[in-house]
């Protein structure tokens, strides 16, 4: 009989002694035509030696390697990585040891060093060296590599490898396989799963404490996806009833997964090796073990899926766009104001980088010639719907008071570990599309050295400790896959590889959320006001449905926030959730937000089931068919030994003729989605052939950019300069040259990951304007020279050497960071006026440099340069220079169109920026001293539990990443 250790319920092979089970903390680890070409020329030239070396390596040549699993056709040419580590669970003793001694639980951060090292090690990377920066993603674990084997049931084993401790789940029955997946999820992510099911239910403060960040987070999320328990169960029933045998199987799999998760929950509680956060938050007494961990339910998975939808669902924002349009019309008049606003909206910018670049168009959500049903608000009438009521105690305080509990001496180091919240308060703030941060690079076999396609791709889901994603391998009847899944909904691998294919995704951004203006009324027949809680549905005054959450908290060891409570309230209509109130033509209305995936948070489960089924996905076409069953708005990419493919998924509603989804529309039958039925929020959806899709284009890149010509952007960011240009320029150069290898494609990604988009793609045009005449002022000339030297050296934000924590060309980087917001304001604000400029900056932030804490992703988040005015600046300056601009702005702004005045504006703001000291450019925070440029950029895992990790070098790349080249096919 096997002997189990207390920790995770795993077998001996992982010592139960605390000092052996923890490891020392590791050292922290101008238009597209005129864009400068020196960067990609240098990049390709530098790759020659490494390319040759890669061709000489056995794996690069496609030599068959004896596979440990007969169903693995990758022959050790599939690799992946997910920092910080696979183990996202720590007992109270491990958390205390971490706080006092700096130790880490085993496998908590053993992927971080390799991930971090790529930013400095990529220039000379060869295929043979990929293992220094990625893990072998082959199926199975050899006996020599096995750390432990656990059998929670007779029909499943969970084998963990020595190197990283990743669970490899193998079942002889379908139920056993999914039970094992749930059990392993409990071992690695139980606290995180519990945390997120409470976020999904709008109960974070009641569960984790009343910290201000916790309050802010649940107040941002819950109004986006408010559900009753009955609503959650109906979604389970809907999947069973409307998806045939696959829907039934999916819910059976979900139940088995939950059964496995609960089995581990019970064992961990009895064995006292559950996550220590339960002790810290008062759920379980650390001395007596009194208390409990609430059992998990299938409806928890719906709540968890709603969190994923809140993070990565897309569209919306029509009220803010309407207000911005009105500001433009007030500034310029209706006709010119509309023209100017539309030029800035960039619905279908001809200069923007597109994933499908062969000219194929996929029209969707375009601007109608004569929009019908518009419901623009009367000036000054818009008010946001109130959310909070009945605040008591600390909930009524702008800065909540602290009331620390009495703590035993030995636990004092853990006092207040969650005083700043368990998650950032802005995790769900703003347009959800702002959370898309993933990238993909794929090259067809015609352009590679081996003749087989190559892919380097992955999702950027932020940096958390533990990660939101969890690594696993699943092998069982009808399931064969390895990769990652969001913790708590991991009955299938959501991004990863199958037997002879791999797939990944980036957030797409198409608009699947619309805003309706419902006419208000009072059911008692009295005159309607903006505060009325009735609305007209198909002519009948209908009461709004009131949904509420009452949350209360008291101080715990982890969160010292004093006792408090409040009530959250939203109103739900047949047209969605009320977000604002206003008047339209003098009549009171409520603006509602209707997302096509609302009430369908987990419908995508069927698509993921298909992707995991080797009997279903056999080629590019079957992959596209599987992806078409995914409701969320994602760009899906595929590679096998023969083809690369792309498919844009999402429940794209079919809008009524001439409806403009960019603005609010009247809530009347004529303007509803086609075949709209509010009972289950169903409607006609665009068929798969109308979604952007492609097979075997020469290459694909995606970094949350435009999908294809005609496919309307859901936000203002998809302009002439986009961070996907950093990939497109490099991959196009590689593909044109041919002989692409896994290493050369990885280098392209890694080089883009440390490059400043403004420096590479906008600075050449800025300098072109400045150099129209000699620069005579010494201070200005010195600043220009620094910027030019930085540009000549690649415009990177990169350490001088690994671990130096100092940037090369650091002063140029400082100048650019200080200059950009100043130059944008000086260039555009005088022409746009205060009101319109302010309105536009609320829709599209001016800057998103790595150190921009004000940006959509916050500080230390890794992802950067997705949102900013770089496209506006490029178009405007090129117009002032007299160059041809496709899709020009509606006016010339820099210097009011005068080149000399524009040049003066740029030089004046440059001089101001050059004089700003580093301490002001990088003001410091809880993690970094003022003036520490490297640290201000550095990535820091946001702790969701008691374990933290040291900052590491900024790099703009996926959190989980695969490098794949299949040499064979079934």
| Discrete helix count | 27
User: What's the pLDDT, averaged over the residues?
Assistant: 91
Largest sheet: 10 strands, mixed
Strand segment count: 32
Q: Please tell me how large the radius of gyration is.
A: 27 Å
Indicate the low-confidence ranges by residue numbers: 1-67, 430-436
Through-space gap between termini: 39 Å
Q: What general outline do the C-alpha atoms trace?
A: globular
Strand order of the largest sheet: 5-6-7-14-15-16-17-25-26-28
SSE-based structural type:
alpha+beta
Please state roughly what percent of the residues sit in beta strands, choosing from under 5%, 5-15%, 15-25%, 25-35%, 35-45% or over 45%.
15-25%
Helical amount = 25-40%
Summary?
This protein is an alpha+beta fold and 970 residues long.
How does this structure look, described?
The chain is of the alpha+beta class and 970 residues long. It has 27 helices and 32 strands. The strands form 6 sheets. A 10-stranded mixed beta sheet has the order 5-6-7-14-15-16-17-25-26-28, with helices on one face. Strands 9, 10, 18, 19, 20, 21, 22, 23, 24 and 27 form a 10-stranded mixed beta sheet that branches. Strand 15 and strand 16 (495-497) form a beta hairpin. Helix 2 packs across helix 17 (724-737) and helix 13 packs antiparallel against helix 23. The longest helix has 28 residues, at 244-271. The protein is globular.
């Amino acid at each position: 009989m096997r002997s189990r250790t207390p920790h995770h319920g795993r077998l001996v092979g992982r010592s139960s002694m605390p000092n052996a089970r923890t490891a020392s903390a590791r050292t922290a680890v101008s238009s597209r035509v005129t864009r400068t070409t020196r960067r990609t020329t240098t990049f390709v030239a530098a790759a020659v030696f490494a390319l040759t070396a890669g061709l000489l390596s056995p794996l690069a040549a496609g030599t068959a390697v004896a596979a440990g699993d007969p169903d693995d056709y990758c022959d050790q040419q599939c690799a992946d990585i997910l920092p910080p580590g696979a183990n996202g669970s720590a007992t109270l003793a491990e958390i205390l040891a971490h706080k006092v001694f700096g130790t880490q639980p085993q496998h908590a951060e053993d992927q971080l060093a390799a991930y971090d090292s790529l930013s400095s090690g990529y220039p000379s990377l060869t295929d043979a060296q990929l293992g220094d920066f990625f893990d072998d993603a082959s199926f199975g674990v050899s006996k020599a590599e096995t750390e432990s084997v656990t059998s929670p049931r007779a029909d499943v084993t969970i084998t963990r490898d020595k190197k990283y401790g990743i669970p490899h789940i193998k079942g002889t029955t379908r139920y056993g396989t999914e039970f094992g997946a749930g059990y392993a999820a409990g071992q690695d992510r139980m606290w995180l799963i519990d945390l997120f099911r409470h976020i999904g239910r709008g109960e974070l403060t009641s569960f984790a404490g009343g910290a201000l960040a916790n309050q802010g987070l649940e107040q941002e999320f819950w109004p986006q996806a408010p559900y009753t328990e009955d609503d959650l169960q109906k979604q389970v029933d809907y999947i069973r009833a409307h998806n045939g045998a696959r829907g039934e199987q999916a819910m059976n799999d979900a139940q088995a997964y939950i059964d496995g998760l609960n089995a581990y929950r019970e064992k961990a509680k009895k064995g006292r090796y559950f996550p220590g956060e339960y002790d810290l938050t008062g759920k379980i007494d650390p001395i007596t073990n009194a208390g409990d961990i609430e059992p998990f339910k299938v409806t928890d998975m719906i709540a968890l899926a709603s969190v994923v939808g809140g993070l990565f669902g897309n569209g919306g924002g029509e009220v803010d766009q309407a207000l911005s349009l009105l500001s433009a019309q007030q500034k310029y008049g209706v006709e010119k104001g509309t023209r100017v606003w539309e030029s800035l909206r960039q619905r279908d910018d001809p200069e923007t980088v597109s994933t499908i670049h062969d000219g194929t168009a996929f029209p969707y959500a375009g601007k109608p010639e004569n929009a019908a049903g518009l419901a623009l608000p009367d000036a000054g009438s818009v008010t946001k719907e109130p959310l909070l009521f009945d605040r008591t105690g600390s909930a009524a305080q702008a800065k909540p008071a602290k009331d620390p509990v009495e703590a035993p001496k030995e636990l004092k180091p853990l006092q207040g570990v969650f005083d700043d919240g368990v998650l950032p308060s802005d995790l769900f703030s703003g347009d959800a599309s702002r959370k898309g941060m993933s990238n993909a690079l794929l090259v067809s076999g015609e352009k590679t050295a081996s003749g087989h396609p190559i892919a380097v791709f992955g999702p950027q889901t932020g940096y958390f400790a533990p990660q939101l994603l969890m690594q696993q391998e699943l092998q069982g009847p009808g399931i064969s896959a390895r990769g990652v899944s969001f913790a708590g909904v991991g009955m299938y691998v959501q991004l990863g590889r199958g037997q002879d294919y791999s797939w990944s995704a980036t957030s797409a951004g198409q608009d699947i959320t619309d805003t309706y203006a419902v006419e208000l009324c009072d059911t008692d027949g009295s005159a309607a006001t903006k505060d009325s809680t009735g609305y007209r549905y198909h002519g009948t005054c209908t009461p709004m449905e009131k949904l509420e959450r009452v949350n209360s908290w008291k101080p715990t060891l982890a969160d010292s926030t004093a006792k408090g409570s409040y009530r959250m309230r939203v109103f739900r209509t047949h047209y969605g959730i009320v977000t604002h109130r206003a008047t339209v033509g003098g009549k009171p209305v409520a603006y509602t937000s209707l997302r096509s995936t609302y009430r369908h948070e987990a419908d995508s489960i069927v698509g993921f089931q298909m992707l995991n089924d080797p009997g279903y996905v056999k080629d590019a076409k079957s992959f596209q068919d599987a992806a078409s069953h995914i409701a969320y708005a994602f760009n899906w990419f595929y590679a096998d030994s023969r083809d690369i493919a792309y498919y844009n998924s999402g429940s794209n509603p079919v809008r009524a003729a001439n409806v403009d989804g960019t603005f609010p529309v009247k809530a009347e039958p004529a303007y509803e989605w086609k075949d709209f039925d509010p009972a289950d929020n169903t409607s006609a959806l665009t068929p798969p052939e109308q979604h952007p899709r492609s097979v075997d284009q020469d290459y694909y890149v995606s970094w949350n950019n435009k999908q294809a010509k005609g496919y309307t952007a859901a936000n203002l960011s998809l302009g002439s300069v986009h961070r996907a240009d950093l990939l497109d320029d490099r991959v196009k150069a590689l593909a044109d040259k041919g002989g692409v290898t896994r290493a050369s494609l990885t280098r392209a990604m890694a080089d883009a990951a440390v490059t400043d988009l403004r420096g590479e793609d906008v600075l050449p045009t800025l300098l072109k304007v400045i150099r129209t005449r000699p620069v005579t002022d010494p201070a200005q000339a010195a600043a220009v020279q620094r910027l030019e030297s930085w540009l000549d050296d690649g415009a990177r934000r990169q350490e001088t050497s690994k671990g130096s924590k100092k940037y090369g060309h650091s002063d140029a980087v400082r100048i650019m960071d200080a200059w950009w917001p100043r130059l944008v304001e000086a260039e555009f604000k005088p022409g746009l006026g205060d009101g319109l400029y302010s309105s536009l900056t609320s829709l599209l932030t001016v800057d998103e440099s790595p150190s921009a804490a004000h940006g959509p992703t916050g500080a230390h988040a890794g992802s950067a340069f997705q949102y900013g005015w770089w496209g506006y600046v490029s178009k405007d300056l090129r117009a002032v220079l007299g160059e041809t601009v496709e899709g020009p702005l509606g006016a010339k702004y820099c210097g009011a169109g005068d080149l000399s005045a524009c040049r003066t504006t740029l030089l004046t703001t440059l001089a101001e920026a050059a004089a700003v000291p580093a301490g002001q450019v990088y003001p410091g925070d809880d993690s970094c001293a003022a003036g520490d440029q490297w640290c201000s950029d550095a990535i820091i895992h946001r702790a969701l539990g008691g374990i933290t990790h040291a900052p590491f070098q900024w790099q703009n790349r996926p959190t989980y990443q695969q490098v794949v080249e299949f040499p064979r096919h079934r």
